[in-house]
Design goal:
The chain has about 280 residues and is α+β, with helices and mostly antiparallel strands. It is about 35% helix and about 10% strand. Strands 2-3-1-4 form a 4-stranded antiparallel β-sheet, with helices on both faces. Belongs to the NDK family. Keywords: ATP-binding, Cytoplasm, Kinase, Magnesium, Metal-binding, Nucleotide metabolism, Nucleotide-binding, Transferase.
Length: about 280
């Protein structure tokens, strides 16, 4: 098994999201399922009475008792060898939502999903039929194959704690009318256009189990290493510690010294001044 909240509505200018047409997506077919590529993620005053230096820094300030880079990043990120439950799952944005992929990626980020791999591509009918082979006896199979091969799709490998279950929860039931009725803030309820119970134009696909996730990821990204002995979280944690935490730690230390009235705004502005 690969071990590797609900949608918070945030107003985003739809006119910007719809600028891309299908012709501008840089799509390509899936040539023998023999390539994988790195992902690209999109998302995309001092306190009164305290002496200040000319630069605005508080003088005679306290020092932080610990480096933020030493703070555990995840529950159980310590030396006791605790069990980790990070997983990967395969997610697909179907043709009816492809042009909104940047908006969807913002939703992914808001809900804690990390994009490990991403590919915009166009399936052939044979490839779509092969991927959905388990639905071959369903009455909607031909329509599903036509739909998934008619226009570009966006395929992702996502990572998060309990990722398979969490992505399924975020997108909601495959039956769009049921999703709209019972889970109105799920992604399928918001973006799905299917009128009946068939899982055709329901906007998203998600692996329904860790085993299915492994199989489906291998279908689209056959060169991606999915060795069960490899702890994906180790790589993720090391990347965050090495590439992100030194800068974040420095910024949080400066913010602790200054203690601005609006810490989040101050920290955001501070990050924008860094390369």
């Amino acid at each position: 098994m690969i071990e590797c909240k609900l949608f918070k509505d945030k107003k985003i200018d739809d006119s910007v999201m719809f600028r891309d047409s299908y012709d501008s997506l840089g799509t390509r077919t899936l040539p023998g399922r023999d390539r994988s590529s790195p992902s690209s993620s999109i998302c995309p005053a001092s306190r009164a009475g305290r002496p200040e230096s000319a630069s605005g820094q508080v003088s005679g300030h306290e020092s932080l008792p610990v480096l933020f880079s030493d703070v555990p990043l995840f529950d159980g990120d310590d030396d006791d060898g605790g069990e980790r439950t990070f997983q990967c799952t395969l997610a697909i944005i179907k043709p009816e939502v492809t042009r909104l992929m940047h908006k969807v990626e913002c939703v992914m980020a808001q809900n804690g999903f990390i994009v490990i791999m991403k590919e915009v591509l166009r399936l052939s009918r044979d490839q779509a039929a092969e991927f959905y082979a388990e639905h071959a006896l369903a009455t909607y199979f031909t329509r599903l194959v036509d739909h998934m091969s008619g226009d570009p799709i966006v395929v992702y490998v996502l990572s998060k704690r309990n990722c398979v279950e969490e992505w399924q929860r975020l997108i909601g039931p495959a039956d769009v009318p049921r999703a709209k009725r019972l889970f109105p803030v799920s992604l399928r309820a918001i973006y799905g256009v299917e009128k009946g119970p068939d899982p055709v134009a329901n906007a998203f696909h998600g692996s329904d189990s860790p085993a299915a996730a492994e199989r489906e990821i291998k279908y689209f990204f056959p060169n991606m290493k999915l060795d069960p002995t490899t702890d994906v979280e180790d790589d993720l944690v090391e990347y965050i510690k090495d590439a992100m935490m030194p800068t974040i730690s420095k910024g949080l230390s400066e913010m602790f010294n200054i203690q601005p009235n609006d810490p989040l705004r101050w920290f955001g502005n501070w990050l924008l001044t860094r390369n």
